[in-house]
Amino acid sequence: MKIAGLLLLALTLSAQVPSNTLSVNWLVREDLFAGLMENDRDRLKKGVATLDSVATYYSEARVLCWRYLAEVTQAVWDYEAKDVTGFNRHYGLALTYLDRIRKVASGNELVLPEIFEGAVLVVLGDRLPEPMRKGSWERAYQAYAKLDQLQGDSVEKMPMHLKGESLSGLAAAAYQTGREAEMKKTLERIVSGMPKTPYASVAKKWMEEPESRTRLKIACISCHEPNRLGNRVELSHVLK
Prior knowledge:
The protein is an all-alpha fold. Helices cover 67% and strands 0% of the residues.
């Protein structure tokens, strides 16, 4: 599976570092996404090591969001390996990070906990222990609903990927939590507001063929090009 997801939304937020310094998102996301989306343990470990090495240069909220993603990913791996102790430790730490993010985030970082919690749970929610899955989907829905509220009318002006992942995540979470009316309303927003996009294509299928909802993924369907970080570093040298 190619690396993808709503987390690209975080790139629209300016980092609290000098203008000629790469955002922490550029430095760690490809490795951490590889862990999240592709179960690549080595890449996740590399991403965490990179995050540890640069953490002091970036805002606490932004760094903790990536730590949250890494901890939930590791918790899922531990659960699937029947390591209950490991699961409890990593998942507990992830929740601690999420609570802290909501306490320290301000300004344009207020959307960060909603972006990360919603996206991570959409990807991994069904891989958590069975008794936790329903609650995880509810939390994903609450995160996307709050994100939609925080973004307001500005979501309509976002680039295709950012708008698509925000609305498709809301639609997916509404579907999983039995909010049929809200799901349909969100699908209509995607079809009418994002014509001729992959999101609109899937949304139309969901509307016309309800049985397709169990086999066609609507969230995390827009992918990054290969070597995105390398291309960004090269461009930064050219622009200096």
